[in-house]
Design goal:
This protein is mostly helical. 60% of the residues lie in helices and 6% in strands. Strands 1-2 form a two-stranded antiparallel sheet. Strands 3-4 form a two-stranded antiparallel ribbon. α3 (66-89) crosses α5 and α3 (66-89) packs antiparallel against α6 (128-138).
């Protein structure tokens, strides 16, 4: 059953509107991850094509050190993904491709559209474990060709990533189904009206 939003308080979503179920949010992210995978494949294809051009050496230098490799990865992958979520969830529709497929919407208090600034905070916090994992990977000596055994610092970093992911997933089952990044941004994920009507048929 859909969880109903409790009676109104000083701030919060409108009462009586169903909150998105945890499984629906996970499935929506899975759909969005397919979108991300298509983008990643296109970037990989461009990189492969550049290997056959005179720009090969310049392209290779982007990945020669941990610092330049992580910076390149951030600019070509993490940042576009964060902006994809931030701009779509901060739009009047409040939904990425995955959320539209599942009939979900990100809102602020009173079911108002989430302001872009808060949507940027939400998306940046959401993908913090992603970027932290990349940071750990690029600090492994020899990565990615011949990685050496992990140091205590790297293990600690990966443990922090696992803890954050566990916290994010676990908080989906909180009373208002707000993750940590929802709380930081003051956002809620609800079932949109069109989806509710379809369920009632």
């Amino acid at each position: 059953m859909l969880t109903q939003i409790p009676s109104p308080r000083a701030s919060g979503p409108d009462p009586g509107r169903p909150l998105a179920r945890p499984l629906a949010r996970i499935l929506a992210f899975a759909v969005d991850y397919l979108v991300i995978a298509v983008y990643m494949a296109s970037i990989a294809g461009i990189g492969f094509a550049l290997r056959r051009t005179p720009s090969q050496e310049k392209f290779a230098r982007l990945w020669t050190s941990p610092r330049s490799g992580q910076r390149t990865g951030f600019l070509t992958l993490t940042l576009p993904v964060v902006l994809y979520f931030a701009f779509l969830e901060g739009s009047p529709q409040g939904a990425t491709v995955g959320k539209r497929v599942l009939g979900l919407r990100v809102v602020a208090e009173g079911n108002q559209p989430l302001p872009l600034r808060r949507s940027l905070v939400r998306s940046a916090a959401k993908f913090l474990p992603w970027e932290l994992a990349h940071t750990c990977l690029w600090r492994i000596p020899g990565w990615p060709v011949a990685p050496e055994p992990l140091s205590f610092t790297i293990w600690t970093g990966f443990a922090l990533v696992a803890a954050l992911v566990t916290l994010y997933l676990g908080s989906l089952w909180s009373r208002l189904h707000q993750t940590l990044y929802d709380r930081l941004a003051g956002s809620y994920v609800i079932q949109n009206e069109h989806s509710q009507a379809e369920r009632a048929v």
